[in-house]
Amino acid sequence: MAEKMELDNVVVWDGNYAAAQALRQAQVDVVSAYPITPSTPIVEGYGKFVADGYVDGEFVMVESEHAAMSGCVGAAAAGGRVATATSSQGFALMVEVLYQASGMRLPIVLTVVNRALASPLNVRGDHSDMYLGRDSGWIQLDAFNAQEAYDLTLCAFKIGENHSVRLPVMVHQDGFITSHTAQNVHPLQDDEAYAFVGEYQPLDEMLDFTRPVTYGAQTEEDWHYEHKAKQHKAILDSRDVIDNVFAEFEKLTGRKYNRVETYMMEDADVAIIALGTTVETARLVAEEMRKEEGIKAGVVAPRCFRPFPFDGIREALKNVKAVGCMDRSAPGGALGALFNEVSAAMHADGNSALMTNYIYGLGGRDLTVDAIKEIYRELDSNAKSGKRAGKIQQFVSLRGPKLEYFE
Amino acid sequence: MSTIKKIRNLKELSTANDRFEGAHLLCPGCAHSIIVRELMNCTDDNLVISSNTGCLEVCTAVYPYTSWDTSWIHIGFENAATSISGAEAMYKARKRKGTLKDPDAPVKFVAFGGDGSTYDIGFQWLSGAVERGHDFTYICLDNEVYANTGGQRSGSTPLGSSTTTAPAGRVSYGKKQMKKDLVGIMAAHGAPYVAQMSPNKWKDMLKKMQKALATEGPVFLNAISACTTEWKFDPKDTIAISDLATDSLVFPLYEIINGRELNITYRPKNVIPVKDYLGAQGRFRHLFKPENAHILEQWQKAVDDQWEYLQRREEARV
Amino acid sequence: MKQSENPKFLGTEELLGWDEVTQGIVLESFEKEVENVAFLKQEERPYSEFSSFTASVADWRVIKPIFNRDICIDCQNCWVFCPDTSIISRDKKMIGIDFDHCKGCGVCVEVCPTNPKSLLMFEERKDIDEALSEWPEKKKKSKEA
Hints:
The structure holds three protein chains of three kinds.
Chain A: E1 11-13, H1 15-25, E2 30-33, H2 40-51, E3 58-61, H3 65-77, E4 82-86, H4 88-93, H5 95-103, E5 109-114, H6 128-132, E6 139-142, H7 146-161, E7 169-174, E8 183-185, H8 190-197, E9 213-215, H9 224-253, E10 261-263, E11 270-273, H10 278-293, E12 297-301, E13 304-306, H11 310-316, E14 322-327, H12 337-347, E15 354-359, H13 369-385, E16 393-395, E17 404-405
Parallel strand pairs in A: 2-3, 2-4, 4-5, 5-7, 6-7, 11-12, 11-14, 14-15, 15-16
Antiparallel strand pairs in A: 1-8, 6-13, 10-12, 16-17
Helix pairs in contact in A: 1-2, 1-7, 3-5, 7-9, 10-13, 11-12
Chain B: H1 10-13, H2 31-41, E1 46-51, H3 55-60, E2 71-74, H4 80-97, E3 107-114, H5 115-121, H6 123-132, E4 136-142, H7 182-188, E5 193-197, H8 202-214, E6 218-224, H9 228-232, H10 238-247, E7 254-257, E8 261-264, H11 274-279, H12 293-316
Parallel strand pairs in B: 1-2, 1-3, 3-4, 4-6, 5-6
Antiparallel strand pairs in B: 5-7, 7-8
Helix pairs in contact in B: 4-6
Chain C: E1 27-28, E2 63-67, H1 77-81, E3 87-90, E4 93-97, H2 107-111, E5 119-123, H3 128-133
């Protein structure tokens, strides 16, 4: 019987430790994991819990991240609660298995500590790994601080394991900026946290010998399409479950999460849309812009990146005249992912807000308050003149001649 | 409670109720299913089975059909050893927590992979699973080629074999490298039991399969799987070709216990020349051209050397 | 001998919509709970429509094995070496061929030890009784393998 921990009302945890604690409290049956910076402390923290008797489940340290996710899939098919953690290169290495896991409709929780993808090799925080997983069929939730990393990880189990969802869920947090920054966290006590997540309810489990099941069949061109369409429907249908779980979580803790987080958007003329810790910095700057420069600034964040909150984004930005889409990932010859997806949501109905793509913070480059102020000022100029001051895609805080594309 | 079925002869084995169904898509005469059937018949325990992508997987689970009467999982090309590790870990966790539907039901975990997935792309996954000591048996269905995708060379393809990616042609005699000694590599992992077996010697194979399932910890079994399509022989000759393989000592049958005790388990009454084995298969036909005579010599020498090595290691108990 | 009157050949299944395919392509082998399927003979099992046992590959064959019960010694060689679970053996006795699943590979004939053999390959449309009446005599001192 696993020992319980008594936690203070307010603790000082970094994002990694917060995630590890959430995994412990969820009483995961199998954690199959591999270390990679900056997510390693999650796995180390969990390993220490195991060594000290706080974990009843199995902890399998495998030989690569691909093996980590493969072990998770095998364990999930065997009918129990499963989780792991990774970043960047490890995430890239397990991408094949991410698609397999979602196609097989297996609930798994993956805490991703976002880190840049090589080359060049970089261990710092950016969103290139999160973007790499966009099409993998996983639900993706984004945490902007340690509290959220803890909260959303608990929610992730409840969402993914719901029998009408049965999908794997990723919980993202910024590498180093969140994962390694000690912050105040209000945790739940062990019993409360586990009661919220609930007991695992097996479905199609390989260890029920009275009902043998085959997982991972092949489909030819006559069956594949229907299966993938069904999977797409499942992830879109999960939106209701996510909303319900967030509502339940609010009742329990008073902390309310939304698939689209909006800040001062009621009367905003200009808005920044971003992910990760940038959201919190932007909120701070938006307040200052209103106070100091009279710019009606707001901030939007797709807390639930997948399923993409198409309607929620459209709704949040419908009255805005200029939007800055901030992408923290090397765009690779196109406009940033957030820009593309948000613009599509905006323009589906012919919304004519001026959209600008700001590439920033790659490889952990700091995004300053001043840089965001400049962005708001440019957005404001765009909104007032009806014309873009700069080009459509710009690199923020980049040393060297200004790099910008498309008019 | 798991017990090893006492099987004294083939008639007793035949009372087993097959849990591998027909109307799969394997080629007529394929040795894979002979091996799989025997594994599933050598025990009455519940089985949880995983397969790497390959002939076996692709031919037994194409929607909307499954040929498996036990729980089975396929994820990808590399990771049968790891998916079964995950299932085994889940079994241990759920047993400890008391959440299994039938906690007393005996169960064995078995992974299947072809030589492509075992010797090459999935080697790391197998190595990791064995190093971690999961309680499972890995059976490599070795047909010495990437058969499922049309016969490309693998790390198991032997010298001089013509494959689609190392074909015999005007200036080449086929694969230039020797076959990897995977059984030796897995023994060096310290696995409690590894063995090489062949379906024509059903009794030897049965003993090894039962010993594998009875052994606690990771077990690696390499099964020679004569492939009518890629080795190029008539489907009816699968067992005959396997006989040539074991009687020429190209595929010696042996076991290694705890990485140290090697036992040769089949000593042919009459050892036949290697070229009789090679000559019976289309994939080696080109080796009988006069300019390739030295390859045939190399072959016989390599087989003789290996047999000598096995006998010495058996004697020295190392 | 087993042969369905209305064989379900592969590829003839009804093509269903996304709302009817199984979740996560999971296939269940049986349509009811089974205690331990290792203790049930095939004819006792509640196979689901997803089990390949319910399908037929009879259309793969151009030649088929015919079984001569009078000569057979129930050695079980053909049973153990059949790649298609198509030799039906019950209580250590050979019953016959499962013609829904036999692909006509001919391995069973090769491994049959009797003289004359108890299994021989014939052209697919051959009448069984006719084949049995034409069965060859015992071979004398043959050098055949």
